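Blinded run. Sample ID left blank on purpose so nobody reads anything into the name before looking at the predicted structure. Input follows.
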Amino acid sequence: MFGVDFSEMMVIAVVGLIVLGPEKLPKLARTLGALMGRMQRYVNDVKADINREIELDELKNMHATVKNAAQSFESSVRDTVSSFKSQADEINAAVTGAADSALATTMAENDMAAAQSDADLAALIATEQARALAPPPEPSDADIAAEIAAAQMQAPAPVQQAA
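Blinded prediction complete.
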């Protein structure tokens, strides 16, 4: 323990026996044994405390590493989620835009058809009004002759009276 051989310890024990005598040597040995035991327990406690501190530092480092890994994972998940959300928003905007565009096109086509129908109706009304307001055309001589001929054909033949 202290670099003392067995032979050196025997020499110390013989000198202690001579100096202290056989009556005080056992008490001294018990006292020294108790002190050595206390000293070993104290040294062991200090070693255990140092080991606990080392383990605590290692746990703190491990905790920091795990925390950083969790934060990086969380940030990557948030980035992925925000990427998915932006893509979903783009798709929704495209779908909404396409639907709005199709609706606008349909509405424009309906408006154009309604405008054409209104224009056709207005032209028809204008034509009828023009006919109503225009004086009737004067019949030509050929028309008059044709009417007379038609009337004669429809008229019954005169019946001859018997005398």
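Unblinding after everyone has recorded impressions. The chain has a mean pLDDT of 82.
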